[in-house]
Amino acid sequence: MNKKEKTVCFTGHRPIKLPWGYNEEEENCIRFKNDLEKIIRNEISNGAKIFLTGMAEGFDMIAAEMVLKLKQEFSNIKIIAVIPCKNQEKKWKVNQQNRYWNIVNQCDKRIVLSEKITKECFNQRNLFMVKKSHCCIACWNGKPSGTGNTIRYAQEYGLKIKVINPEEYKT
Predict the structure, then answer these.
(1) 84-105 pLDDT, tens per residue?
(2) Residue 160 belongs to a domain with what CATH number?
(3) Which residues constitute the domain of residue 129?
(4) What's the domain count of the chain?
(5) Residue 1 — pLDDT band, cuts 50, 70, 90?
(6) Are 128 and 82 in contact (CB under 8 A)?
């Protein structure tokens, strides 16, 4: 098994497209997180060792925190922050910026792809993660979006794709 076959990337929606928004204490979000944990655990049991997160608000940070939680149990897994550009978090609310840095500082490695925000840096991040992975875990509602583009990249590169539809977690 080569390194790529042990790597999983995450892609997913920002809070505005998630039924619970920023309220991750909501019952539906807790159910979602439990289902996500089962999917990640399954990938670990199938040999996944490295997880790539694009560190966007919403799903990326939820998934990263889940991997950090699981690292307490599985000390051999690693999480890498693939940051599209320096200062991507600067316009976020302070609590989200703090969350971002808390996650980044716990990651095993951070890769910053661009010195400044550009129109293409987010797509470049997504493609970078797909090219390094064998599996993509996505939180996607099926509608055209950056997440949809990343899933298309994953299909083109032959990745195993696991999609969680956030619409299934509405009350």
Answers:
(1) 999 999 999 999 999 999 999 9
(2) 3.40.50.450
(3) 3-169
(4) 1
(5) very low
(6) yes
